[in-house]
Description:
InterPro entries: ABC_thiamin-permease_prd (IPR017195). This is HMP/thiamine permease protein YkoE. Pfam families: ABC_cobalt (PF09819). The protein is an all-alpha fold. About 75% of the residues lie in helices and about 0% in strands. The protein has one domain. It is globular and about 55 Å long.
Amino acid sequence: MKGKWTLREVVLLALLAFLFGGVFMGAGFLYAGLSAVLTPLGLSPFANEILFGLWTMAAPMAGILIPRKGSSILGEMLAALAEMLYGTYFGPGVLISGFFQGLGTELGFMVTRYKRYDIVPLFYGAIGTTVLSFVYEFFKFGYGTYSIGMILSLLAVRFLSVTFFGVVVVSMVMKLYNRSQELSVVKE
């Protein structure tokens, strides 16, 4: 799609940001609980990785629903802003994370030259999101102090989480959405 954004697209993006800001807040509470459970086992860093895909869902959803260049980055950034405004204890740093997560997903659509809006760019986006966000958090959280085995384990769990939430769950939601659109056309 080219040209100016439509009012419908802007409203949809705002609704996605509002919705996913809430999802991100909920993921923060899940993170706190999971981290508390994993800490005595010495596995607290895995709490972030297991749930990471939840924090990345706005980008692929925005990219699929609003097939425009930049919609993934914008969707994830606005959802991160909503999370911040809701009062997340992660603070304004979520905006930086949101940028890398959105950019990673956007790369998935770039690879297909913005011609595909299906599972293929979502999978490429999962790779991009995993790599970009992991490199950023490698330095942010000091992952360099971990053994190579631990680092690779964290990366693998993050990739699985991002793939599950950003590819599998988003695809399932989109199938339901498309089905509801077909049903609404039939009823008219």
